[in-house]
Prior knowledge:
disordered N terminus, mainly beta
Amino acid sequence: xxxxxxxxxxxxxxxxxxxxxxxxxxxxxxxxxxxxxxxxxxxxxxxxxxxxxxxxxxxxxxxxxxxxxxxxxxxxxxxxxxxxxxxxxxxxxxxxxxxxxxxxxxxxxxxxxxxxxxxxxxxxxxxxxxxxxxxxxxxxxxxxxxxxxxxxxxxxxxxxxxxxxxxxxxxxxxxxxxxxxxxxxxxxxxxxxxxxxxxxxxxxxxxxxxxxxxxxxxxxxxxxxxxxxxxxxxxxxxxxxxxxxxxxxxxxxxxxxxxxxxxxxxxxxxxxxxxxxxxxxxxxxxxxxxxxxxxxxxxxxxxxxxxxxxxxxxxxxxxxxxxxxxxxxxxxxxxxxxxxxxxxxxxxxxxxxxxxxxxxxxxxxxxxxxxxxxxxxxxxxxxxxxxxxxxxxxxxxxxxxxxxxxxxxxxxxxxxxxxxxxxxxxxxxxxxxxxxxxxxxxxxxxxxxxxxxxxxxxxxxxxxxxxxxxxxxxxxxxxxxxxxxxxxxxxxxxxxxxxxxxxxxxxxxxxxxxxxxxxxxxxxxxxxxxxxxxxxxxxxxxxxxxxxxxxxxxxxxxxxxxxxxxxxxxxxxxxxxxxxxxxx
Length: 584
């Protein structure tokens, strides 16, 4: 009873102290802008900066400390929207307006996802503090409401988060504080990105869009599988419910997936231990260890007796039966919900509050599925090995347009490919696309890029594109949907570079694994050496009225960008310096 009286008295005191301040702020600002948290589908960040909470108990020390907020984790915005702002990825401004004010990022939260008007449970926030903070400390957003708006928008399926000049006026509350950003732009780039979110910067007359851009560090390969992390009987897999037999040999690997759905390299070769008994087994996989930037993992298993380079992807979602329907989980594992571009089993990630998930594979893989990504693996004319673009970090970066949901808008430097022999392909870069992103008639995707080499004497150069998806492939390679060819007027002299753009338009949509059609059109670019004297224009050699059919447009897919030369020699591989993908 005493505890209830104390809590209610504190809440009343907090209202008496904070209430007049909030009312005064609303009186001053209410006539200047809308107080709605969401307008026309856009989340207005400045209104997510209106919430505040009060510390019920503080501390006299510094370092790792815990603040308690006795009002539940729920807070109310000016329009009455109640949401839960406390998150390990959302910095907080503690003791706002005081000399000991500072911006901290929670390392742990507890009891902050409930809300009650009677006796809410304590919300505890642990962080590393530079200053001491006592009872009554005012707690506000440490990102001017931006991260809170992003988190709520993502939980509702995504959207556009906006900021304007009023956000600039609010900036001094976090800029310059201990642990705070040094500028508003620095604040934006420090935000935690999601594939479903873009930021519209309306500080000026022209809107500046900020979309997630990957860093230059690629995702590492997961640790090599072992008999305790993959195999018959692992992670609850049984010996009667699958199609794998202990008397056969299978090789498996797994690849990390980043927050934008881009895969990394597959783990090193591992042969599933066999029992020698012809039982019908399942193969189980424990969740791999957490890794910077990884939110999921994909699984690849060979056919019986197959080579590591021909490990085929395990389908984690089922093929839809209706065109336009989202694929549903195939029941292999708990899929990550952080990204939905590439279906992937969940990996532990504290930034996004996610736990890892084990996987159990019952069905044999098929040779019509994509093969494992390996940046340093040399391709052959029969096997086109993907060069993955997964990254360890993504930050919001300014651009002139919003990246299309379902794909990464821009990729930076890819891993250099192997020196390709004449007429042997080299996959210089691979991008992953979300299920159904091109499964609409008339939808057009533009792929552009730049690649270079330090040693080539090629005289005929091709830049090709494959659509790589479940159920449609020839063993080891996707379906060729684009081919740009150039014949330089003189052979390349050691150094070579190529720039290219190719449009792809869907002409037939389908829910089946081989029912879609894509037409390549408006392809252009150039190949040259050190000077323009040896330059040759890239021309589209696949511009047909019918387009390329037998494609699976309903599930997740890859586009492999391929370098090929048919005359001359290459003494070094080509590097895809940048790649952009946008709907036009």
